[in-house]
Amino acid sequence: MSIKLLVVDHHDSYTNNILKLLSGDVAAHIVNHDRLSSPRIIDSFDAVILSPGPGRSDNDNDFKLGAEIIKYTLSVHKPLLGICLGHQGIATTLSTQSQLLPVKSIRHGHRMRIKLADGRLFRGIPSDIHVVTYNSLTIADADNALAAASLSVTATEADDDTSVMALQHAHAPIYGLQFHPESVQSEYGAQIMSNFLEVCSEYKKDTLQIPRELIESSSIALQVEAPRIRRHAFTVTHRSVDLPVDTEHVFDRHVRGSGGLGSVWLDSARVIKGAENMSYLANPALAISYRLSDHSVTIQHGRTSKRVTIQLSFWDWFDRLQKVLESLTAHTRSDGFSVGWVTALGYELGKESLEGYSTCQTRLDHLRSSSAHNSVDALLLFCNKVLAFNHVDQVWVEHKLEPIESVDCDGLGVDEGMRYILEHLLESPSQSQSQSHPPLHPTTHTSSYRSAHTLQTYSRAIEEARHQIALGESYELCLTTRFTADAEGMDGDGYWEIYKRLRHSNPAPYAAFMDLPILDLAILSSSPERFMKMDDSGRIEMKPIKGTVERDGNDSEHDKQLAESLCSDEKEKAENLMIVDLIRSDLMAFCEPASVQVPHLMHIESFEKVHQLVSTIIGKRKAHVGVVDAIKRSFPPGSMTGSPKLRSVRILEVLEQSNRGFYSGCIGYIGVNGCADLSVVIRTIVYANGEMHIGAGGAITYPSVAHKEWEEVLTKARSVVGTQIET
Ligand SMILES: C=C(O[C@@H]1C=C(C(=O)O)C=C[C@H]1O)C(=O)O
Ligand SMILES: NC(=O)CC[C@H](N)C(=O)O
């Protein structure tokens, strides 16, 4: 008989990885702690796992229901496993004398040796194993307080007998683990969990039906009905075209300056093994911009525009539109982009994608008074004709969306805005005047880039970040800042000159150029980081970067040593591991569990100015999860937030005091064929409102040293604009 397991998630970013450790006949439900109102929920389950998480187990805001569940589970004698925060909760709830104290050395994402005693969960496991820890706090066993509460210590750090790394109750099936068995670098995680499930089988009793509301609020994706399409309205044609292999020349001659809305180029400026190595060039037929501040979508097409307020969140609206488009289009199998959206999704869209997000009041006040209020948070550019260049085969193909019959919107479940979009997809807007006569001497002049911080002010932000980590609020925070230059009078030719320089000075595999005069917006990106690639069978690849070192020339002996030292640096490796575990958990929420794998853990990729530590995580999305939903569930990119995601995002809002905009979001394509490839927007210049902005930052962990982090920020910003930085 199947074991019904309740996993209570405290908004940690690792909880879904627990599912990866489960085998056999078990049905697990993951539910956020703040969605539950009573510990009696346990009556519907055979056992419970209390997840890790930010904050403290003796703080009601973080662990109120957790504590009630522990007491109730003890009274009904059902199995309970607490991990990290959950483990600390067992001690603070059952033993009022036990205290939470800071650990001696705070090192999140650290792999340590522990010594196991004779605990029920450790059967069949060697007594000396390596596990990963993510805690700032620990249980102090003063005056045998734990023993008085019938708790015994079943594991300690290998070289510290007084530390409490695991607990077990003497008379009830209650267990705690201070470490994270679900981390990709912990040993014997699956064996520990299998031992726990064995206990669950022994204690299995009759349980009640699981309440329907609970199943619906489970954080694992539920089936959303795809629109039923009777007939295809579009098809995609592909034809080879004879153009020079110089993509820059082709973009300049055939794309830039054409088209009324602007031009876009997803540019494989650096061809690397494992990247898609395709470039896509297009003049969008239709531009959609979304503003979070008033939930409005503006659809621009030629000189006409339509503005609608949407009732759904942006993500659900876009998901619907994409699903309708996918189902309206007849497909031949094709990997990569053919036609569809070129998109830029701003970091603040996380407010609509992060489960449990609600912003604090002070932050809202700040937003209301800032100019960011009017900024565009998402851009969807529909490209019905795309020029694609394969850098490996050196061939050009033109993809085009063609009509089969007119779109019948009735019964598709589309709103007024979507209806307007579907009706105008095939029309190319007329050419704009200003773009067709480029001036002979483009203005490329900007002032130098002023930094929003000095070493002193950034150091203060870093100290506050470290303080929050020490309190147990976060394990890692990706703190960022911004640099701004005046660019009054700059036009499309100006950005183009700057972009040409950038793609040569800092060539990147996920570079991009977007010039959108109708929105007075341009994006010049030299991103080295893949956020997410999806093929049309739903296979996903994510390649987060954590770990950066400035290069010393190219290929010198010292430069090689720098790369090697990055590979073996414990701090950088821990930063990377934390994001790998976070992304595994993101993917576990909507992928086939067995498909989530880490084929490459911490490899070096070298770019013009920096070496980076990169990992690869793969998965296959479940059949009912759409491409937009997959992006939403992983957004914002974990490498730009830190971990756990939700709490870290909130802390960063307070520390950074300004919107990140497109920086830290993602850029790329989402095709009507369901394929997507998106980069993380870093090493990127964004032009808006007469100013050029560059964001730069880095992961702060407890061992971070302020002046080194500041140097890293400057290195990253300089990789984009050289010496133009003013601090
Ligand atoms: C924050 C930035 O980069 C992020 C942080 C990195 C790091 O901490 O090593 C590396 C790549 C990005 O995920 C940036 O480039 O501005
Ligand atoms: N990973 C966790 O559950 C961390 C628990 C707690 N916030 C700590 O830092 O100790």
UniProtKB/TrEMBL annotation:
Enzyme Commission numbers on file: 2.6.1.85
InterPro entries per record: ADC_synthase, Anth_synth_I-like, Chorismate_C, Class_I_gatase-like, GATASE, TrpG/PapA_dom
Pfam families per record: Chorismate_bind (PF00425), GATase (PF00117)
Residue ranges of every copy of the Glutamine amidotransferase domain listed in the record: 6-197
SUPFAM superfamilies given in the database record: ADC synthase, Class I glutamine amidotransferase-like
Domain Chorismate-utilising enzyme C-terminal per the UniProt entry, residue ranges: 456-716
Pathways per UniProt: Cofactor biosynthesis; tetrahydrofolate biosynthesis; 4-aminobenzoate from chorismate: step 1/2
Catalytic activity: chorismate + L-glutamine = 4-amino-4-deoxychorismate + L-glutamate
Residue intervals passing through the bilayer: none
A GO term for molecular function: 4-amino-4-deoxychorismate synthase activity
Family: In the C-terminal section; belongs to the anthranilate synthase component I family.
Protein name: aminodeoxychorismate synthase
Organism: Wallemia hederae
